From TrEMBL:
The keyword Metal-binding applies. The keyword Iron applies. It is a multi-pass membrane protein. It is found in: Cell inner membrane. Residues 1-21 are annotated as: Disordered. This is Succinate dehydrogenase hydrophobic membrane anchor subunit. The chain crosses the membrane at residues 28-55, 75-93, 114-134.
Length: 139
């Protein structure tokens, strides 16, 4: 008769098995970016809403001339550029996390991320181009 081997269960405090990959802090930096960019976005967006809706008289004043006057100032160009970049990168990072969490196949994950990164790059590039090349005198 053979005797059964006892089941071996690792101690809950034992270290997890090491992987052969190089250790990187990419996820830590992504997590930290989400917290910092979130705080900055709250400040920028609430400031934008307060200035546009309360100090500048509301949305009924917004027209081509208003935007032309606003983009004549480097301050507003930088403000809007920061909102654009931070919002797009914050959203992209969040959606990247969702894609990593919910896709099962590597090929699907890769495809979705490439679509996400392409769309993000296009929106950031076009938005930056509009902010810095806006000219109200083009005829």
């Amino acid at each position: 008769m053979t005797t059964a081997q006892p089941l071996h269960i690792d101690s809950p405090r034992s270290a997890p098995p090491r992987r052969n990959r190089a250790h990187t802090n990419t996820e830590l930096y992504a997590w930290l970016f989400m917290r910092v960019s979130g705080v900055l976005l709250v400040i920028l967006v609430l400031g934008h809403l307060f200035i546009m809706n309360i100090l500048d008289g509301g949305v009924q004043r917004i027209n081509f001339g208003f935007v032309a006057g606003r983009y004549a100032s480097p301050f507003w160009q930088v403000w809007d550029l920061l909102m654009l970049w931070l919002a797009m990168l914050h959203g992209t990072n969040g959606l990247r996390t969702v894609i990593n969490d919910y896709t099962r196949r590597d090929a699907t994950r890769f495809t979705l991320k490439m679509v996400l990164y392409t769309a993000t790059t296009l929106v950031i590039a076009l938005g930056t181009l509009v902010i810095f090349t806006f000219d109200p005198n083009i005829k």
